Amino acid sequence: MTARALRFPSRATADTGPSQDQPYTGPTPEIDPYATTYTITQAAYLISVSTEQTRQWAENGTIPAIHTDNGWEIPRTRLTDWIGNLPEA
């Protein structure tokens, strides 16, 4: 398997703050291998992007996500498809 360098979307707005450019730095989240959705924190960890940026992408529709009473849920298969369709850097 060959590693791909992916080009993630640019920030949606110019005034998002410096923390948005940072990779995920929190603790390693527990991910249930049988769950059908990810939380914002789990998705941020998996794509190595800050939770703030991941949440912004979920809110503006960049990442396929569903807003529920418990917050944002990101369907596993849709996130995998989204990553697979990113252009290579």
Tell me what you see in this structure.
It is globular and about 35 Å long. Residues 12-19 have low confidence and may be disordered. It is built from three helices and three strands. α1 (40-47) crosses α2 (51-60). A three-stranded antiparallel beta sheet has the order 1-3-2. 19% of the residues are buried. The protein has a domain at 34-84: Alpha-Beta Complex (Molybdopterin biosynthesis moea protein, domain 2). It is an alpha+beta fold. The two termini are 17 Å apart. Residues 1-33 are annotated as: Disordered. This is Helix-turn-helix domain-containing protein. It comes from Amycolatopsis ultiminotia. Residues 16-25 have a biased composition (Polar residues).
Quick description:
With 89 residues, the protein is an alpha+beta fold.
List keywords for this structure.
single chain; 3 helices; Molybdopterin biosynthesis moea protein, domain 2; 89 residues; three-stranded antiparallel sheet; alpha+beta
What secondary-structure arrangement, pairings included, does this model have?
Blueprint lengths: L36 E2 L1 H8 L3 H10 L5 E3 L2 E5 H9 L5
Antiparallel strand pairs: 1-3, 2-3
Helix pairs in contact: 1-2
Beta-strand content: 5-15%
Gross geometry: globular
Task: Just name the CATH architecture of the domain at 34-84.
Answer: Alpha-Beta Complex
Number of strands: 3
- What gap, in angstroms, lies between the N and C termini? 17 Å
